[in-house]
């Protein structure tokens, strides 16, 4: 794996997919309570949040506790945030993942 190339890809593609999902849903980033990205690399998470001008205290990350848990990273981080009481019923979460073959996707979830 070419780490620098993955970094460049992620910090470009992830904000684009987030903006596309928001536009399709007729929402703005300011409508989101939380940002939850694939937990592969803290530098990527920080850079994407910075690029989007999203508040750091509203970015969900558990990477420092578990490392990259691959395809399970978003569901694991979400479960931990819900169980700890950070994410509450009715809040809206923007998620985005990227990975194998430089694929990517995003979704908006209203926690219920």
TrEMBL record:
Pfam short name (any one): ACP_syn_III_C
A single Gene Ontology CC term: chloroplast
Pathway annotation from the record: Lipid metabolism; fatty acid biosynthesis
Superkingdom in the source lineage: Eukaryota
Domain Beta-ketoacyl-[acyl-carrier-protein] synthase III C-terminal: 22-111
GO MF, one annotated term: acyltransferase activity
Keywords, comma-separated and alphabetical: Fatty acid biosynthesis, Fatty acid metabolism, Lipid biosynthesis, Lipid metabolism, Transferase
Keyword Lipid metabolism: yes
Keyword Lipid metabolism included in the entry's annotation: yes
SUPFAM superfamilies: Thiolase-like
InterPro entries: ACP_syn_III_C (IPR013747), Thiolase-like (IPR016039)
A biological process term (GO) from this entry: fatty acid biosynthetic process
PANTHER family, sorted: 3-OXOACYL-[ACYL-CARRIER-PROTEIN] SYNTHASE, BETA-KETOACYL-[ACYL-CARRIER-PROTEIN] SYNTHASE III
Protein name per Swiss-Prot or TrEMBL: Beta-ketoacyl-[acyl-carrier-protein] synthase III C-terminal domain-containing protein
């Amino acid at each position: 794996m070419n780490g620098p190339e993955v970094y460049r890809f992620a910090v470009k593609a992830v904000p684009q997919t987030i903006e596309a999902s928001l536009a399709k849903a007729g929402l703005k980033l300011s409508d989101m309570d939380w940002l939850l990205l694939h937990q592969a690399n803290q530098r990527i998470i920080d850079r994407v949040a910075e690029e989007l001008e999203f508040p750091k205290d509203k970015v969900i990350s558990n990477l420092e506790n578990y490392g990259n848990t691959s395809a399970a990273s978003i569901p694991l981080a979400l479960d931990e945030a819900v169980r700890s009481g950070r994410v509450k019923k009715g809040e809206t979460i923007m998620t985005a993942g990227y990975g194998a073959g430089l694929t990517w996707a995003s979704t908006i979830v209203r926690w219920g």
